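Try this one yourself first.
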């Protein structure tokens, strides 16, 4: 099933709300996506008919098993991209916004390698020297090839 960017955004928002409190409400989704409640209701009808959410007017919204898998995948993809951008010294707020744009456009193989890279960096020593060197390079534009190898 090929989803639109908007459908993915809704599933990610619903997934986040459900993970936080067990369900979502129209106003939760509207606030998170900065859209009107009628827009949310319209999308929920569509996602419900596609078997991705359990939605009845005025009731708590949950994800179907299929919707949960897709929502988790989208959320993970977003977090991976955001974390990667922060590793390369993009400020958190900008990294979040950029990840929202990028997450819909990358090939799954690219996401897979970014995920491996982010995990690798997170498992590295607390202050890997190459990250310190990158920070220096980012600030000065100069590469110091005399730096000791660790």
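Now uncover the answer:
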């Amino acid at each position: 099933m090929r989803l639109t960017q908007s459908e993915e955004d809704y599933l990610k928002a619903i997934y986040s709300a459900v993970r936080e409190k067990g369900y979502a409400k129209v106003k939760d989704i509207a606030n998170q996506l900065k859209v009107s409640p009628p827009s949310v209701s319209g999308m929920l009808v569509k996602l419900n008919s596609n078997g991705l959410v359990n939605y009845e007017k005025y009731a708590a919204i949950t994800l179907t098993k299929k919707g949960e898998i897709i929502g988790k995948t989208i959320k993970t993809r977003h977090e991976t991209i955001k974390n990667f951008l922060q590793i390369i010294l993009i400020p958190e707020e900008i990294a979040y916004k950029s990840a929202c744009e990028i997450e819909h456009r990358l090939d799954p193989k690219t996401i897979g390698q970014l995920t491996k890279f982010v995990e690798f960096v997170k498992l590295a020593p607390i202050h890997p020297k190459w990250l310190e060197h990158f920070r220096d390079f980012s600030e000065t534009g100069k590469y110091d090839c005399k730096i000791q190898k660790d």
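Discussion: The mean pLDDT is 91. Strands lie at 53-54, 62-63.
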